[in-house]
Amino acid sequence: MRAHGVGEVITSDLARSHETGQIVAEVLGLSPPRVMPELRERRFGVFEGLTRDQCVQRYPEAWAAWHAQTGVPEGAEALSDATARMHTVLADLLDSSALVISHGGVMRLFLLDIFGAPPPPMRNGTTYVVEHDGDRFRARRLRM
Fold first, then answer.
1. pTM for the complete prediction?
2. Which of 34, 77, 100, 122 could form a disulfide with 43 if both were Cys (CB 3.0 to 4.6 A apart)?
3. pLDDT tens digits for 31-51?
4. Cα 126 to Cα 143: distance, rounded to the nearest angstrom
């Protein structure tokens, strides 16, 4: 582990996360980031890559169910599945001193689950220290 306390950088395999991880690893003098697809953003199925207007036009029933929080679009990942995925991947990293770079949507779901309330708005680069006390996850936001 280096003087800054970070042993490695781990990112999702999506470009925006991985590119950020490469920059951070270089600045910290670490090896290139390890890639974990499990850190990806939540899947939105048939809504992927579409604007809200396009979702409404192409999939009006699915959009209405999504908006009312009574269903997910075809091929999308349920909230509970995305949250469970993040719990699993972060639990697997408990013994590491990793700096994990993921995506706002899926991290907000994880934080909502452990806080029991929505976290404050997250901008790009928002950083949380996530720990586990042997019983449950805890997180605190770093102010930079």
1. 0.86
2. 77
3. 999 999 999 999 999 999 999
4. 8
